[in-house]
Amino acid sequence: MAKHRKFNIDRFLTKFHGHEEILRAYTQRRKSGLKVDISSLDVDGVRNLILSRNWPDKDRFMEGLYRAWDLCTEDGLEALRRACATLAKPPDPKEELAVEPLSLKLLARHEDAFDRAYADCSLQKAERFSIYQGKEGRPIKDVKEAADRLYQRLAADFKGRKNSDSVLVLPYEEGDYVNFVVYHEKRTQAVLTLRRARKKMKVLPTVLRPAQQDFISYNSKTGQVEIETQFEKEEETLRQRFAECCLGDAAFFEGPDASNCLELGVIASDAFKVEARGTDEAALVELHFDLPQEYGPSFVVKSRNVLGTLLMNQLKAKLRADQVKRAVFRFTFTDDKRGKRVHLSGTNKVSFKRATHAETVFEYLRIWKILVERQPTPANLETGGLNRVASDSAL
Question: What are the domain boundaries of the chain?
Answer without folding.
Answer: 9-123, 128-247, 264-381
